[in-house]
Amino acid sequence: NGHGPLAGKRVVITAGPTREPIDPVRYISNHSSGKMGYAVAAAARDAGATVVLISGPVNIPVPVGVEVRNVLTAEDMLRESAVAVDAGCDLFVATAAVADYRPETCAGDKIKKSSEQMSLPLVRNPDTLATIAAREDAPFTVGFAAETSDVARYATEKLQRKKLKMVVANDVSTPGMGFNSDNNVVTVFWPDGQEAIGPDSKQQIAARLVALIGEHLDRAAD
Ligand code: PMT
Question: What are the start and end residues of every segment in region (Phosphopantothenate--cysteine ligase) (predicted)?
Answer without folding.
Answer: 11-222
